[in-house]
Amino acid sequence: PPPSPPGEAMQNDDTIWNTIGPGGFCSFKVKTRTQSFCRNRYNHTGLCSRVSCPLANSRYATVLEHKGISYLYMKTIERAHAPKELWERVKLSENYTKALEQIDQQLLYW
Fold it and tell me: Taking the complete model, does pTM exceed 0.85, yes or no?
């Protein structure tokens, strides 16, 4: 198939957000009287919002710790056809400065 036209991913992102967003249903959403929260492990803020929703963003990155080791998780539209491989995981250095350099390098062309 031909490549997707520019901006198509954004349209799909908007469609997803319009479905699961403020008025829609999302199994990760927890509502209180004043705020909606997100329990998705990749959501870096814990808030249910368009910019922090890992489901409604084709390109998304976050840092998570697992057993004392920090990892950079990156989601890209190119892996959407293989949900098992949707998230790329990069082990980060224990040195804070080196870890920031690794993140900068990995996200250089974002």
Answer: no
